[in-house]
């Protein structure tokens, strides 16, 4: 059994859901199980129903079916949470962590990134680079980097994606054409930091605690270098850390250390744009797959459909509310709520997430809806 990363304290978060399509009767056509990795032997839960409960009757004498299924529902939420934040990286025993990290890095790059990248001017000062991305080769969540022109004409890139010829040309045409800040917005969105750092060696590299150490351990992936970080956010310094005068004049920022991925969220004040990575998804990833040939677009698996439903902001957004409350903020809800409230205090109108659709104009309204329980409380 492979060892678990130290940052994940609950081994039940490490799971892999094997799902198959349903037959005409509504029953699984093959065995469908949720494997829970522990420090001992993986155990099996009963088959999972598409309705969100396990097909096992409650214990004798217990007629409260809703109450009896809550622990199982929570486990599913935590399992999907692990998948969303990149925790599930061990698919079979005997594979070392570094080897998988290298393979995952290769899979993050489309075979033809320049052909499928969508470059969009969200505002005259904010440009996005959207690309297709399948989480674990199954769930289409897309990826997005964001380039911002500061008031002093310098440039900052957030969650950088591949620096393709088209992306490089767009950088050259905006502001000074020189990137002064390269921001890894959490401990997962850093694969292309080195590529941008080589192109712009004078840029400051910014990221959350744990990321420099994580990158330093990778020795077999050419994409991940060991460049020094100029600014590292920690739980202890987050309230008094400053980047520099030019950057701070245009941005507010919050380090959400309570999030499993150690999220950095930025508010670009001149254009009222919120830039974030995994704090909030907005699936489906339509723009990010818009240039992919129809025949090559992924067809939704059961797990993909469930995950998309849990990360959609449409309607009442109950799925994503539950996902954030019961899974993503579970470890430190008080700290998570504090960060959400600080972000809610900013006057943004547009949200640029890494995964899913950009929300233009009504970003604050959507944010308040999605994080309602964190802002107003929930029983």
UniProtKB/TrEMBL annotation:
<keyword id="KW-0812">Transmembrane</keyword>
<keyword id="KW-1133">Transmembrane helix</keyword>
<keyword id="KW-0472">Membrane</keyword>
<feature type="transmembrane region" description="Helical">
    <location>
        <begin position="72"/>
        <end position="91"/>
    </location>
</feature>
<protein>
    <submittedName>
        <fullName>Beta-lactamase-like protein</fullName>
    </submittedName>
</protein>
<dbReference type="InterPro" id="IPR025638">
    <property type="entry name" value="DUF4336"/>
</dbReference>
<dbReference type="Pfam" id="PF14234">
    <property type="entry name" value="DUF4336"/>
</dbReference>
<feature type="region of interest" description="Disordered">
    <location>
        <begin position="40"/>
        <end position="66"/>
    </location>
</feature>
<dbReference type="InterPro" id="IPR036866">
    <property type="entry name" value="RibonucZ/Hydroxyglut_hydro"/>
</dbReference>
């Amino acid at each position: 059994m492979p060892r678990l990363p130290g940052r994940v304290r609950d081994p039940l978060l490490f799971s892999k859901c094997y799902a198959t399509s349903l037959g005409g009767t509504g029953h699984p056509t093959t065995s469908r199980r949720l494997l829970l990795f522990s420090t001992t032997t993986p155990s099996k839960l009963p088959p999972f129903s598409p309705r969100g409960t396990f097909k096992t009757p409650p214990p004798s004498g217990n007629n409260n079916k809703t109450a009896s299924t809550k622990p199982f529902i929570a486990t599913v939420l935590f399992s999907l949470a692990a998948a969303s934040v990149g925790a599930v990286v061990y698919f079979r025993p005997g594979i070392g962590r570094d080897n998988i990290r290298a393979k995952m890095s290769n899979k993050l790059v489309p075979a033809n990134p320049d052909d499928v990248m969508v470059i969009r001017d969200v505002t005259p000062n904010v440009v996005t680079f959207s690309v297709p991305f399948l989480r674990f080769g199954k769930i289409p969540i897309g990826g997005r980097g964001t380039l911002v022109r500061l008031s002093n004409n310098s440039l900052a890139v957030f969650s950088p994606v591949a620096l393709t010829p088209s992306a490089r040309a767009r950088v050259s045409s905006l502001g000074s054409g020189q990137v002064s800040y390269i921001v890894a917005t959490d401990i997962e969105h850093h694969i292309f930091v080195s590529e941008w750092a080589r192109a712009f060696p004078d840029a400051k590299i910014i990221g959350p605690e744990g990321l420099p150490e994580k990158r330093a351990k990778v020795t077999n992936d050419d994409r991940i270098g060991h460049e020094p970080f100029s600014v590292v956010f920690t739980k202890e310094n987050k309230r008094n850390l400053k980047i520099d005068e030019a950057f701070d004049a245009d941005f507010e920022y919050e380090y959400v250390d309570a999030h499993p991925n150690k999220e950095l969220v930025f508010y670009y004040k001149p254009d009222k744009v919120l830039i974030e990575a995994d704090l909030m998804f907005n699936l489906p990833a339509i723009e990010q797959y818009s240039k992919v040939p129809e025949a090559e677009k992924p067809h939704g698996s059961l797990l993909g459909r469930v995950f998309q439903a849990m990360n959609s902001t449409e309607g009442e957004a109950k799925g994503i509310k539950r996902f954030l409350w019961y899974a993503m903020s579970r470890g430190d809800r008080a700290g998570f709520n504090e960060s959400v409230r600080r972000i809610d205090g900013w006057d943004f109108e547009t949200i640029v997430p890494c995964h899913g659709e950009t929300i233009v104009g009504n970003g604050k309204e959507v944010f308040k809806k999605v994080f309602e329980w964190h802002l107003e409380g929930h029983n």
